Amino acid sequence: MSCSPERDRPMRITVDDRSQRLRERLRERLERVAHLRCSEHGLPVEAVTVYGRENGWFDSMWTTCCDGLTKQAKAIVKDRC
To answer: What is the pTM of this model?
Structure first.
């Protein structure tokens, strides 16, 4: 986790999925996460990497300023689609 002074930089999204369908299925959720701001620091989510697994399940790694923002982002994206 890190606090970056660059607040207007768009969220970096990396999707590692062989089927290439995961990105499209997560598109709306990731757009919602891109608009989140930390209530304590005022910073957005910096980046997310999504690793596709099987049967719609995936793992995600977040780069945020704090655990609170990570929890908000995970609540929107979940672990399956």
So the answer is: 0.83
